[in-house]
Write a structure and sequence with these properties.
Order of helices and strands: HHHHEEEEEE
Radius of gyration: 31 Å
Number of helices: 4
Structural class: alpha+beta
Distance between the termini: 65 Å
Largest sheet: 4 strands, antiparallel
């Protein structure tokens, strides 16, 4: 009866240790706490085997099995922890690549279309590159929190872009749009982003009469 109670007690403690820490927000907390409880349970089992083993062979064999199980569990845990970190880094790289493509498409498309319209003008009364851009995209520039936000055509309240776009400069000879990620860290964690944040990935697109320059700032 005592053995059954010992086993049931270990199972209950491991279950409690696994489910309660999940509220911490750290995904590995339940696993680590449950493994700790299981380790204490196995330690108690070792003590029990040493005290109650019928022979030296039984004690050595029982302890050997427990050591093998504990070693395999520790190895598996460390391996999966490292694998999870590698998968997280890989997912961040994939997401950064996807967001880079989104940024490039959403910030360069209006500029390239404005450049095409600028060069397709006829006659002597040609508009400056600034006027052409504002004629096509003026309604997409809104002042929000003291910044001139550029709102892409597909950004809605239901589906926001992963980037914040800013009209950094709109002058007679150039138009500059800045695309700042809201989630993906850049190369330099101390980089000052356009909106006052630090360390996020950021790109800059500059349109002039001669063409478009697109560069990564962080």
């Amino acid at each position: 009866m005592k053995r059954i109670g010992w086993i049931l007690g270990g199972m209950i403690l491991a279950a409690i240790a696994f489910f309660i820490p999940e509220r911490s927000g750290y995904i590995w907390a339940p696993v680590i706490s449950a493994v700790g409880i299981a380790g204490l349970f196995l330690l108690g089992l070792v003590v029990y085997i040493i005290r109650n083993g019928k022979s030296q062979f039984d004690r050595v064999f029982g302890i050997g099995i427990i050591v093998l199980l504990a070693g395999a569990t520790i190895y598996s845990g460390v391996f999966n922890y490292q694998k999870a970190g590698w998968q997280l880094d890989l997912l961040m790289d994939i997401r950064a690549t996807i967001e880079k493509g989104i940024s490039q498409a959403q910030s360069t498309e209006p500029l390239l279309l404005s450049l095409e319209a600028y060069h397709n003008q006829d006659g002597s009364n040609r508009k400056a590159i600034e006027a052409v851009f504002l004629e096509r995209n003026g309604e997409k520039i809104r002042t929000i929190n003291g910044f001139n936000r550029f709102i892409p055509h597909d950004e809605t309240e239901e589906h926001d872009s992963p980037y914040l776009y800013y009209a950094e400069a709109v002058s007679s000879d150039s138009v500059v749009l800045v695309a700042q990620s809201m989630r993906i860290p850049g190369r330099d964690p101390g980089f000052p982003n356009y909106n006052g944040a630090n360390g996020y990935m950021q790109f800059k697109a500059t349109l002039t009469e001669g063409g478009l320059n697109y560069e990564r700032q962080n």
